Write a sequence for this structure.
């Protein structure tokens, strides 16, 4: 080696040291390692942020110690009187459904329509009864012939009896004449009965109003063929209107005759006050209800029959009560459970229920007027829980909505 070095130096040529180069694969591996390390750090940082965010949203305060938001209403002092409500129907004093009762025939004419006012005896409809008329005439002629023969036989029997005293005829011949006269008399009576029957058929061809009233329905037009029992028209008498209703058997004393009743008619929104005219002495065996009726005159005939009436009967004496909305309490039997607010605490109370009407509960006055009663938020409350009053609602004035009224009528059964 020394010799070689010496020779190199001697020749004057310098030799450079060797350089080590980095290949591309080594550079890519380093870059990948850096990316993996950076990604791991980023994921750990993101996880730590999410954990911190979730921990910061956990409510570490007990819900029981948080005041519940509620709305309240003040109990209002009112006067309450127990009452009963029934649904009745307006019926006419008289009604008749008119149609043929004995014959089948074609309808010739119908002279009225619904709403027409008629008088007793007015012709309402006629039937084509030419066949019945002809038969009636034939029967009448036969009766006349039998009557003539019977008179002749009677006279002949009288003359024959006078000849018996002189011995010109036998007793047997006289008896034969008398028997023939009696037989003709019986045939005459049978003919008259048949004539009366035919007369009924003819009278059935003209339908007349049985009383003063109004035409309610018209069910048949001219040209239709009708049978006995077919209804052509109906007539109602509304000069006196009857309100009929059914009451449970336990209300038998409540619907006694002469009891005052407030009536509201849905068809016209009119209101009247009347008295019970009659009450059935027995309950219906199927429904166990008691039938009662109220009569009142309607000279103007302004009320439509067959419509609905709301009947209200007050029972007992008026008494003091506290009124709250129906939504402010839970009902069970004759008790109402509600929450009252004292300060910032809600207390559960049970109060005797007197009645319910038009969305209001009438409670015993032990719930003092002006007491704050929870209206909204009651379902989530427990006794003794703190509350925050969000709104105070006021009850609307307790009065009956205005309606169209007629003067009260003094009724006579």
């Amino acid at each position: 080696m020394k010799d070689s070095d010496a020779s190199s130096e001697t020749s004057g040529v310098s030799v450079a040291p060797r350089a080590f180069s980095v290949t591309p694969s080594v550079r890519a591996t380093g870059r990948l390692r850096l990316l993996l390390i950076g990604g791991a750090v980023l994921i750990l940082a993101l996880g730590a942020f999410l954990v911190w965010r979730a921990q910061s949203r956990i409510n570490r305060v007990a819900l029981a110690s948080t005041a519940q938001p509620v709305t309240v209403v003040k109990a209002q002092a009112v006067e309450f009187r127990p009452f009963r409500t029934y649904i009745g129907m307006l019926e006419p004093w008289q009604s008749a459904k008119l149609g043929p009762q004995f014959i089948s025939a074609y309808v010739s004419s119908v002279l009225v329509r619904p709403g027409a006012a008629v008088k007793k005896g007015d012709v309402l409809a006629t039937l084509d009864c030419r066949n019945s008329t002809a038969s009636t005439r034939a029967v009448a002629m036969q009766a006349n012939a039998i009557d003539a023969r019977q008179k002749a036989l009677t006279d002949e029997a009288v003359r024959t009896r006078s000849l018996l005293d002189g011995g010109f005829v036998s007793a047997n011949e006289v008896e034969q004449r008398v028997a023939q006269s009696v037989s003709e008399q019986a045939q005459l009576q049978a003919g008259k009965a048949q004539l009366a029957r035919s007369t009924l058929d003819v009278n059935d061809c003209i339908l007349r109003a049985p009383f003063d009233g109004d035409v309610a329905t018209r069910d048949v037009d001219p040209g239709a063929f009708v049978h006995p029992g077919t209804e052509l028209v109906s007539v109602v008498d509304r000069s006196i209107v009857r309100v009929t209703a059914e009451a449970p058997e336990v209300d038998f004393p409540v619907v006694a005759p002469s009891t005052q009743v407030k009536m509201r008619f849905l068809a016209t929104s009119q209101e009247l006050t009347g008295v019970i005219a009659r009450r059935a002495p027995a309950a219906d065996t199927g429904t166990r209800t008691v039938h009662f009726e109220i009569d009142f005159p309607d000279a103007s005939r302004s009320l439509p029959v067959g419509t609905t009436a709301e009947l209200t009967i007050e029972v007992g004496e008026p008494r003091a009560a506290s009124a709250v909305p129906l939504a402010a309490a839970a009902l069970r039997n004759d008790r109402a459970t509600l929450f009252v607010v004292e300060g910032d605490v809600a207390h559960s109370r049970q109060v005797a229920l007197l009645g319910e009407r038009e969305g209001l509960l009438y409670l015993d006055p032990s719930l003092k007027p002006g007491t704050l009663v929870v209206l909204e938020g009651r379902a989530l409350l427990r006794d003794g829980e703190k509350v925050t009053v969000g709104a105070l609602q006021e009850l609307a004035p307790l009065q009956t909505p205005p309606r169209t009224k007629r003067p009260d009528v003094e009724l006579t059964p």
User: Anything to note?
Assistant: The first strand starts at residue 68 and ends at 74. Helices lie at 2-11, 24-56, 130-164, 171-203. The domain at 69-80+320-393 is CATH 2.40.420.20 (conserved putative lor/sdh protein from methanococcus maripaludis s2 fold).
